[in-house]
Amino acid sequence: MVDPTTGPLFVQEVPGSSRPAQMHLAPSLDGLYVPYALRTPSDEGEFPFVFLAYGNGGGGLEWVSSRVRTHSYLMDRLLAAGYACAWGQYRTEVDEGFARGGPLVVEERSGMGLMNRSPLEYEDELAILRHVARHPNVDADRLAHLGVSHAGEMLFKLASRYPGVLRAGVACEPANHEFLGLRPEASDFVDASARGKVEEMQMHDTRRVRARCDVDLARQRMAPIDLPILVMGRDDDHLQGIFRLSYELLVECEKDATWSSWDHPVHGYISPARDAHDRVEVDEVQDRAIDAVITFLDRHLGLPA
User: Fold this and answer.
1) Which is the most buried residue in 2, 242, 258, 298, by most CB within 10 A?
2) Which parts of the chain sit beneath pLDDT 50?
């Protein structure tokens, strides 16, 4: 096991930056390992930490290494604002695993672990958060999570099942269909052959989404959430109604929730990428959206004045 207090598995240089990425392996709850690439503003001091996650998982160490190279811009902005941060990866999403599996129960038999089910992808995130919290440059009391797409839904799942771990969260375009108990109808898809495919659902209207969700179940799942969450939509996204309803139900549950939505053509706009010529493709909307994220983080776990 790579101990974050003694050193990384290896160090990867980051294009255009003097702050490299430290590659670590965190032990998952069932004894396997999940990778993350940690960057800190300095080798000295303790910094609030932001975990960065995107999509469905399953890419392993190779995905993390590539992500650091191609999507370092968001990390660089966070570092400049005084935050440690890490791209991390986790096991592949299990369809309806959160709904069907229930809470994870860990016991002991014959001196070894015994579980009622396998850990799920958001519990790999929990393992990473617990691991990085031991790093000497990370303030264990100020951990945040920024998830995009399915990883935005993972934030909701993590906050619901494991309250007290995070101080703040950002859910950018959260694909919260499972968390909200969404049961779409045939008319909600572009055509009959697309039924069951999230990417082919037409769920822009919030009222339409609410009518198809188990609102009572969603509120039960939100009840344990104890951290402020910034929900970020995308104006013309076909799942905008899911994003917006996630925010509205948080408010109805009297949670600390903030909403913003941005007009941008790219899914995952919050994390600009490098092009084939190794140039960062970033525009004013993306920079303003990142400004909003940093302002939110500063308000809830920023460096003391």
Assistant:
1) 242
2) 305
